[in-house]
Structure formats: structure tokens, C-alpha cells
From TrEMBL:
Organism of this sequence: Neptunomonas concharum
Name of the molecule in the record: Alpha/beta hydrolase
UniProt lineage: Bacteria, Pseudomonadati, Pseudomonadota, Gammaproteobacteria, Oceanospirillales
Length: 70
């Protein structure tokens, strides 16, 4: 799953997603409202809970993935 940076959209990860797809990866380029909600709300209500595999994120959005730690 690709997560774009704050104040960005999923379009900012489009080229990376296309390249990963060419390499045979199943890619989900997920968009979310990065400027209208806080990080916890984005992580708990907008990012899919069932993420199996790797998450590639941009800049400060790494904190979103912390909500997935057991």
C-alpha cells in the first residue's frame, strides 16, 4: 500500500505505483484527506485495517503506520 504525504494526494505516488506494478507487485495507492483530519483519525478511520504486506509512505506519514503496531 502506498500512502502519500501530508497536503498531497494519491497522484504524488502514481509514478512509484506504476513502476512497482511493472515489477510484479500488487499495489494499492490509497488516498485520504491529509489536511482536514488529524493523524490518529486518518489512521483509524480512513486507512484500511487489513493491510498484509508492505507499506510505502512519504515523509511524515510514517506516523500513520505506527497505529498498525501490535
Amino acid at each position: 500500500m502506498l500512502l502519500h504525504g501530508m497536503a498531497r494526494t494519491e497522484r504524488s505516488m502514481g509514478k512509484l505505483g506504476a513502476e512497482l506494478t511493472k515489477e510484479g507487485y500488487f499495489v494499492v495507492n490509497y488516498g485520504y484527506p491529509s489536511t482536514s483530519l488529524d493523524i490518529e483519525e486518518i489512521a483509524t478511520s480512513h486507512i484500511p485495517k487489513a493491510v498484509f504486506g508492505d507499506v510505502v509512505n512519504d515523509s511524515g506519514t510514517a506516523i500513520i503506520t505506527r497505529f498498525y503496531q501490535p
